[in-house]
Design brief:
about 90 residues; mainly alpha; about 0% strand; flat; single chain
């Protein structure tokens, strides 16, 4: 395969596009992620209770399940991010 084929290959363009968006988007999303992370102990129980108890009583059981699943995935992501940060801090301060 020639180097020109590698440069103009559609996967190369996709990789460049994704990395550019990721680099630009990270700085813009950092404040929102920090807010979600610092308040996860407040919003997750409220959303979980609403989605699992209140929404089915109002006739929105399927929507409640989707909301609960989405919030649980986000909550787990926040917790994993906190764990990674703690491990990095521990390794740096050993």
């Amino acid at each position: 395969m020639d180097w020109k084929d590698l440069i103009w290959h559609p996967m190369t363009g996709l990789a460049v596009g994704v990395s550019a968006i990721g680099q630009l988007g990270f700085g813009a999303l950092e404040p929102a992620w920090s807010l979600l992370s610092s308040t996860s102990g407040l919003w997750f129980p409220a959303i979980a209770t609403t989605a699992s108890t209140i929404m089915p009583e109002l006739g929105y059981a399927q929507l409640g399940t989707k909301v609960l699943l989405a919030s649980a995935i986000l909550f787990v992501g926040v917790q994993v991010n906190k764990l990674i940060d703690k491990i990095q801090n521990w390794r740096e301060n050993r």
